[in-house]
Amino acid sequence: PPSAVRFAVNYQLGPTLNPRDDIAIHVSPRFAEGFITRNHIVSMTWGPEENDGPMWIQPGQEFE
């Protein structure tokens, strides 16, 4: 939606949430901050966050 602040896509390596299965890749465009964040979870611990910008997508616009 045009008013979106952020969203996330997680590629999780199983269905369990508590305790959480590992997440191979977490991608989160953060429109207000102007960058895309990447991360992962191994053994319920987040890895180092990687941020990449400037933002190349906009809220409410389609992208491929």
TrEMBL record:
Domain of life: Eukaryota
Keyword RNA-binding: no
Domain Galectin: 1-64
PROSITE patterns registered for this protein in UniProt: GALECTIN
Source organism: Bombus terrestris (Buff-tailed bumblebee)
Protein name (Swiss-Prot/TrEMBL): Galectin
InterPro entries: ConA-like_dom_sf, Galectin-like, Galectin_CRD
Keywords: Lectin
Example GO molecular function: galactoside binding
